[in-house]
Amino acid sequence: MISSSEYGSHSWELLVTVDHHHEEVQKEFLLRVTGDLHIGGLMLKLVEQIKISQDWSDYALWWEQKKCWLLKTHWTLDKCGVQADAKLFFTTQHKMLRLRLPNMKTVRLKVSFSSMVFRAVSDICKILNIRRSEELSLLKQSEDTLKKKKKKDKNSKEPVTEDILNLCNSPVSSGLSGSPGLYSKTMTPIYDPISGTPASSTITWFSDSPLTEQNCSILAFSHLNCSPETLAEMYQPRTLADKAKLNAGWLDSSRSLMEQGILEDDQLLLRFKYYTFFDLNPKYDAVRINQIYEQARWAILLEEIDCTEEEMLIFAALQYHISKLSLSSEAQDFTCESEVDEVEAALSNLEVTLEGGNASNILEDITDIPKLADYLRLVRPRKLSLKAIKPYWFVFKDTSVSYFKNKESAQGEPIEKLNLKGCEVVPDVNVAAKKFGIKLLIPVADGMNEVYLRCDNENQYARWMAACVLASKGKTMADSSYHPEVHKILSFLKMKNWTMSPQAVSDPESIDMKPECFVSLRYTKKYKPKQLVARILEAHQNVSHMPLVEAKLRFIQAWQSLPEFGLSYYVVRFKGSKKDDVLGVSYNRLIRIDIATGDPITTWRFSNMKQWNVNWEIRQVAIEFDQNVSIAFTCLSADCKIIHEYIGGYIFLSTRSKDQNETLDEDLFHKLTGGQE
Questions:
Q1: pLDDT digit string (tens) for 389-418?
Q2: What does the radius of gyration of the chain's CA atoms come to, in whole angstroms?
Q3: Does the N terminus or the C terminus of the chain have fewer Cβ atoms within 10 A?
Q4: Bridge partners of 624?
Q5: CA-to-CA distance for 357 and 355, rounded, in angstroms?
Q6: Per-residue pLDDT tens for 137-156?
């Protein structure tokens, strides 16, 4: 019997379901509570009733109807808004999750389902030994990208058993107190900078983690795992609208996995979301470098990013070289001291180019701004007629390029002066055909003005191309990143410039190579395997001397040189427009692209952006730029929160510097990306 005093007017019954594995114990409990009972008191009362002796420290209350965690244990039920009709679920905060990594390997590990995704990704990256977790996020594959797989699965008779790397004993956030030591700049390098293998003296750093030497090699080394059949089964975007589907499933970094409908043992993709790879260091980043390389490799194989045939063969040659080194024991036991200094120097140069230059030479930046002057050919596309190609005397100064009839008239007024700040710079190169072109898309009031420059040789092209790239970002040739940019362009051209060496490919049949593993399906259909082997071996001559990690960095560098690199596409409808467009989001700009032709219409730079916000009622993103330019659009292929987070995320990443320690201002990230929903 319950006394009448306990039936006070303020008390009521609350049903709580407990997630436990004791079959003989009930799972539903009816508790009599009052509105001033705090969440911590409710959990204590519940545990006392369950009468199972176990560690309940990881358990918390999940409110099913509101899809939210009740984590503030000092809040009362009244403050949380919990009433008698609430369905509460007492469950663990850390649950198993399957993650498909960029190298297509699946790992299974324990992840916090109650932390914001930003924090959960940080914990995952600590377990996997990937620095700079802010560059990655979790992606849920959209139904469209899965449909093709499902059709194939129905046709296949034998079920495919996936090889899963089980890290289920991994320490979760509470057990990672020692992990920051992995990222300390003063500690001994944990990887051999040449071969990428864990340094034997420091493998003890993994002792508290399930990332043993064997598991580390699975994550840090490239393993061939594709065939034409595998490629054919995977989703390959054909149009810009298809590419937009790839970016629709990014999870909200400011909400937890559980709040976004992710269940225990679901599969998500762990991917590099932001294409600004900061402070890549072979001594600490073997796993990170390999996963970036793998993401780049699959993007090229599945034609998520376009490249020319010449470029495809370079990528194929580098992949072939990397796979050879990864399989050979030489890569594992590479300890030749004489070559270390040379490789270290090459890698430090590569680091500079991958980071966009290091502002070391301050004097160079404050002296007179250098200029370029030379004869180039100007190509202007004309409607209904052939292109007009004429040589002019060009002068490049600051961020503008002017051209004159000839060298003698350069003292007077130019025929035209083109301001390249904010323009799109697209390479138009075919080394074999001696074609070195620069396509400039210059923003004007009603769209983009198209101009082509033709250079005579590689050196001239590298100097002018580097100047154009810097000018488009608002930088001049006095900037310390100019010379590394020239060097990067020349090294990429050098890789493209291979000659047929009879002794190298005298007998392609004797080479054990599966060319279809290294090129996209388009080329396996276009050429016979023998032809592909011969062409890949030709290109391989220029890269065959490279150590393993350098080859991966070269691959990443070549990927970064592609015109479409770093663009994430979304189908949008601009305010006042009657048709859909594609919006490309990059690390420094937004591009409006014609959905039918793929031509850029307008570019807006983040550096000119004053503010951006979202009208959550009509799901419209509004952005204001300098000079009273404002745009607004609704997103059709994804939630507008994803684009809002992309813009804020890139601005957040631009605030990073090498001087600061590697702890992130998480509050600033959420302030820039969260929005006020």
A1: 889 999 999 999 999 999 998 888 999 999
A2: 28
A3: N
A4: 611, 630
A5: 6
A6: 999 987 766 655 555 555 54
